[in-house]
Every structure is written in C-alpha cells, then in structure tokens.
Design a protein that fits this description.
2 domains, 273 residues, alpha+beta, Alpha-Beta Plaits, 5 helices, single chain
Length: 273
C-alpha cells in the first residue's frame, strides 16, 4: 500500500498531563511509575500508543504546538503516516476516542497530501487565557482558569495589550533557555474581554517563544493591579531582558484555541465538521 498522511484535530484537558511532547521518566515526576518502555503521561505518548493499537503498527505523531504541562487545547493539530491500514478515517477516529481517556478527544481525522506538516505548514495560532476575577475561587473549575481576587483595571490592561500588537523583539517575554536564535515575533491581535467574573485574554500571532503567552498574561495582570503602568510596555519590550516583564501566569488557565495552516490537498472524508 502507498503511504498516506493523516491530519488530526484534537482537544484535551491538560491537567493530568506533562504537556504534549513524549518524555522519559524525570526526577520531578511524582505520579505512578510508567510501564517498562513507556514515558510519563503526555498527550503525544498516549495518543501515539492508542493509534498504534488501532492501525496495528507503531506511528510517529507530529504535533504543531508543544503545549506545556497543565496547558489545555481546543484545536491542536498533528499528523502521522501509515502504509498499513485501509480503515476509513471516521472509523479510526471513533475507535481512537473509544480507547482514549475522557480528557482527550480527537475531533477530526482527514487524509491529506504529503505536503502537509503539522509544524512547518502552520501560519498562525491563537491562544486564550482564562481568568476568574472574583473574591471567591470557582469551586468546579480551579484547574481551568487562574483565580485573581484583586480588582483588575480592564481598560488599563487593554491599553497595555495594544502596545504588544505588531512585530517586536519579545525577549523580555520569553523564558530564559528558550533556545531560539531570534526573539522577534509578530502578534496580530492581543485583546481582552470580560463577562461577569470571567476575563479572557486572546493572543493571536505567527509564532511564539517559550512561555511567551503566559508572561504576557502575567504582565497584563500586573497592569490591571496598577503595579505596571500601561505606558511601560514599550520600555519592557525595548529592555530585551526577562526581568523587565511581569510574572509568568500559571499554565492551567492557558488554552491553545486554534491553528491555521497553509492550504493543502484534503481528500474526501466523512469526518465531522
């Protein structure tokens, strides 16, 4: 059989996982000891093993975004290749969701042309960060949003966010050790909306640095607390040092919302819309 590439769109609640990427046992891991030959619980590891059982051979699963431990996804993208199955994509999807834990869902599987690559075909991504801004924490979603009990000045945060839109050197908003040659990135949008105690910070860009969105959120929250003036954002960008920006927001409020890719050939499939 000729090799066929498949594109996956998936959602997951990242609370129980150590991020996207497969990892071997590390000293900081406190959970149950993995089975021999298995790594610690990550989305890539669990999804790859489940797919391998269904199509009956090991596969290499490539993800678009290496979300960190505790980070969630509404629209992560991935791809894999196989030359050993004739199972219809929708049947693969249903069998996969039946075998996966309830906090991981494959929303779509589509056969695509070999030109599609979950990493290099990506053009832009949108993240959302969810804050619960109320005196009391949310008792049913503590792992899905960051509780901030102080009153936040939303207009000040929106004013600060506007300074981040455009092409800038975001070295001040990158975790040290990010390993990137260039820290210049382009944000297409950085907007903040509120509905009752729920505040959502949306960050849309063509590329991101390690912890960049979480540092942006932490800095904007400090603006909302009147600890950083909105007009300081250009100076923070110009400083090009991590110590100039605010705190790093915790991972559990962050969601990979969606990913756009360059056009590629999609073959007919009965996958759901």
């Amino acid at each position: 059989m000729p090799s066929q590439r498949y594109k996956l769109t998936l959602s997951y609640r990242g609370t129980a996982y150590h991020g996207w990427q497969t990892q071997s046992l590390v000293p900081t891991y406190k959970g149950p000891t993995p089975l021999p030959g298995h790594g610690i619980p990550t989305i890539q590891e669990i999804l790859s093993r489940a797919l391998g059982r269904i199509i009956r051979h090991p596969i290499t699963l490539v993800g678009s975004s290496r979300t960190d431990a505790g980070v969630h996804a509404k629209g992560q993208l991935a791809h894999f290749d196989t030359d050993q199955t004739q199972i219809p994509p929708e049947n693969i999807r249903r069998a996969l969701n039946h075998s996966l834990p309830p906090d991981i869902l494959v929303r779509r599987i589509e056969p695509v042309d070999d030109s599609f690559n979950a990493v290099t075909s990506t053009t832009d991504k949108r993240y959302q960060y969810v804050l619960w801004n109320a005196p009391d924490r949310h008792p049913f979603a503590a792992d899905l949003m960051w509780h901030r009990w102080q009153n936040l000045d939303l207009p000040a945060m929106q004013s600060a966010a506007a300074h981040l839109v455009g092409t800038h050197d975001f070295a001040s908003f990158a975790r040290p050790g990010h390993g990137r040659e260039s820290t210049i990135r382009t944000l297409l949008d950085c907007s903040i909306s509120q509905r009752g105690p729920l505040i959502v910070i949306a960050v849309h860009g063509t590329g991101f640095l390690w912890n960049m969105v979480r540092i942006i959120v932490g800095t904007l929250v400090e603006v909302g607390q009147h600890r950083i003036p909105p007009t300081d954002i250009p100076n923070i960008l110009a400083a090009r040092t991590r110590t100039a920006a605010g705190t790093t927001a915790p991972p559990h409020g962050l969601y990979l919302h969606w990913i756009r890719t360059r056009p590629t050939t999609l073959y007919p499939t009965s996958s759901p819309t």
